[in-house]
Amino acid sequence: xxxxxxxxxxxxxxxxxxxxxxxxxxxxxxxxxxxxxxxxxxxxxxxxxxxxxxxxxxxxxxxxxxxxxxxxxxxxxxxxxxxxxxxxxxxxxxxxxxxxxxxxxxxxxxxxxxxxxxxxxx
Length: 122
Fold this sequence. Notes:
By secondary structure, the chain is an alpha+beta fold. The chain has helices at residues 2-19, 40-55, 75-82, 115-121; strands at 24-29, 32-37, 90-92, 95-101, 107-113.
């Protein structure tokens, strides 16, 4: 498995240099991955490229675990303007990550223990 992950890292780095205009952030722990893109168009293009790349090896992304969400300091304002409600959250490494604000009213990522795990523990 480590070799496969290393190959993925190399492929993402090449894709980033060749195809991305904006910032691309990759956070990976073992086989769990979060990708952040400055531009929505690039996120969509990357997802299509990744599906194509995995398909060459007979692999596919898990449909319930793969999604594209808007998560940034502007997400709340943008979603409110579109009438979509609060920004979406995501689970990663045992925590639910929430787009929120700190005591000064500035953007901050809030983290809470995943609810399902908390209930199982209690």
